[in-house]
Amino acid sequence: MIKVEKEPGERRSTGGIVIPATVEQSNRLVWGQVCGVGHHVRTVKVGDRVLFHPDDQYEVEIQGENYLVMRERDLHAIASERPEHGTGLYL
Q1: d(CA 17, CA 52)
Q2: In the predicted structure, residue 83 carries a pLDDT above the cut 80
């Protein structure tokens, strides 16, 4: 189960152009926080920050909060707190 991180409404490009909140980007990956894992999950644990594509995922509401339920193989990357070597992302 993943809780999607809220993106700020307005953002800036690297060139300084302001992109309003109403602009929708179709193939954008998003970050989320892992809130629960199943029995057969090997590399992801509760509390990990993961990168995934939000479309075609199952959404569930628990105690007024929305979560996404997905398979481990649908994740693109897991952020590492301490990047010893490389970018700090692994899969």
Answers
A1: 25
A2: no
